[in-house]
């Protein structure tokens, strides 16, 4: 199938948001989506963008059942490690179900990897859910290592009341 | 014990790097440190800093056995979630062993939490090693949730040859 991978533009944000919702449903967490395409536009396309994004686009004649030509995306941002310097984190990699198995996910992931190399970053990181074996199989087939099972890294979060309480305890100086 | 928490300056990078090494030794991964204080200076104090940092400083009369007055640090950066918008990731939180149990780690963590709230971010995330129960106990006592054990998020990485190979597969368009 013909497709292109290109940097996202502000006008792609409605499609990216639509697919973000599809991904959240796939991840069984649709209630976790708290922002809209307007925030994506503002956050990704200001003077200091908070993320970068590639979209996968197919020609009109290959559009989806519902008429979409933007059928996948990869959303990433720069991170930092005091041990290794700048790096890249892949927040989302998504391809609509009817377009899977055609190399689009692979092309999106590889495009992000070229950014990692061009920016002389040492690694590309991401998180995946333990029950999501199709995604795990895909990433492992491309050479990913699981730092949770192999090294023991666990992801922790402070949010809600715990975060509020923590902030209130801060020294004033 | 008297101490202050303040934003790091370029001239603190030698001390931050020293403590980064101490932390890597504690984490049993000293070989993972690939950058020096010069990179920290460049990366953290340019026009578009790649990270932010707080240092904990004690008065001269309380200095460490080796004569250090900068005895802890918290290094963090901004991240993004397509579901929740901007957020903060705490890369390192460290207090020198002889200064632990005096509220310095708590003050550093709380200072970062104030940034999270001021910037209207929804969460503060970090990773911790599964064998590092002292750090886990500290974070859990402050209300952190383990997203690996509770939700199933695993951290994956592409680096070295796998990353090189991935980048070479990218479509040229």
UniProtKB/TrEMBL annotation, chains A, B:
PROSITE patterns: GNAT
Keywords: Acyltransferase, Transferase
Signal sequence segment: none
InterPro entries registered for this protein in UniProt: Acyl_CoA_acyltransferase (IPR016181), Diverse_Substrate_AcTransf (IPR051016), GNAT_dom (IPR000182)
CDD domains from the UniProt entry: NAT_SF (cd04301)
GO MF: N-acetyltransferase activity
Any Gene Ontology biological process: polyamine metabolic process
UniProt superkingdom: Eukaryota
Domain N-acetyltransferase: 3-171
Pfam families xrefs: Acetyltransf_1
Homology family: Belongs to the acetyltransferase family.
Name this polypeptide is given: N-acetyltransferase domain-containing protein
Organism of origin: Synaphobranchus kaupii (Kaup's arrowtooth eel)
């Amino acid at each position: 199938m013909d497709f292109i991978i290109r940097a996202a533009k502000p006008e792609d944000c409605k499609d990216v948001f639509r697919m973000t919702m599809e991904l959240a449903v796939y991840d069984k967490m649709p209630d976790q989506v708290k922002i809209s395409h307007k925030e994506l536009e503002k956050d990704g396309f200001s003077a200091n963008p908070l993320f970068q994004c590639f979209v996968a686009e197919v020609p009109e004649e290959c559009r989806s059942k519902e008429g979409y030509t933007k059928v996948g995306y990869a959303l990433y941002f720069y991170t930092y490690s005091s041990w290794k310097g700048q790096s890249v984190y892949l927040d989302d990699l998504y391809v609509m179900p009817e377009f899977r198995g055609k190399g689009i996910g692979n092309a999106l992931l590889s495009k992000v990897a070229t950014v990692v190399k061009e920016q002389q970053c040492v690694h590309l990181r991401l998180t995946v859910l333990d029950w999501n074996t199709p995604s795990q199989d895909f990433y492992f087939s491309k050479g990913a290592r699981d730092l949770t099972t192999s090294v023991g890294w666990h992801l922790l979060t402070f949010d809600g009341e715990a975060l509020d309480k923590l902030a209130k305890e801060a020294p004033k100086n």
